[in-house]
Amino acid sequence: FPEYITRIGSYAFSGTLLSGALIIPDDVTEIGDAAFNVTNISSLKLPSNLKVLGGDVFRLCELLAGELSLPETLESIGGSCFVGCSMLSGTITIPHKLKVIPAWCFRYCGGLTGDLVIPENITEIGESAFGECVNLKGTLSLPKGLKKIGDRAFYDCKFQGELVIPSEVKIIGEQAFYKCDFSSIVFAENSELITI
User: Fold this and answer.
1) CA 193, CA 52: separation in Å to the nearest integer?
2) How many CB atoms lie within 10 A of CB 160?
């Protein structure tokens, strides 16, 4: 990519024969919907100044491997962004500027491992956001300001240890923690839970 590129548009390389290492220049601040979905890229370096990552951007990039490093500058990520990237591995760190982890964002990312810490600014975790990430076998930490956990948000993850549901959570969707292996689930004092 030329160094002066600041935005990659929607569907720019969708379904093409693009393969190998993908290095996106640091000047890029936005990547549009489905820009690289269903390609054969094998590794990824996201720009250090990225702010907006659209929906479906890397959907079904089944050869995409290695650890996923999301830049701390990221403010928005779209639904199904990494769905089906089953060869991604290692722990994942969610950037602190995000407010929502949308539906299907990391579903079927079965190679992700370790603990998962959801940062303090997150208020909503969408439907199946981490569904079937079967190697997430560490602990799960939820932020105090979280208000909604969508249907099947952590379906078939294998988290262990104690889970604390923060007091501001109002909605826990169907099968949100189905097949998780928590030793206990604790609801914080003064819980505002309405639907479970």
Assistant:
1) 31
2) 15
145, HSE (Cβ side, Cα atoms, 13 Å): 10
How is residue 179 written in tokens?
């097949």
- Residue 131 token pair: 């569904």
Alpha-carbon torsion, ordered 81, 75, 22, 54, to 10 deg: 40
**pTM of the full structure:** 0.95
Cα(106)–Cα(93) distance, rounded to whole angstroms? 12
> Can you tell me the distance from the alpha carbon of 183 to that of 177, in angstroms, rounded to the nearest whole number?
12
Locus of tokens 């294998």: 158
Percent helix, strand and coil across the chain, each rounded to 5? Answer: 0, 25, 75
Residues of the chain with pLDDT under 70: none
Token representation of residue 75: 């403010």
**How much is the pLDDT for 2?**
81
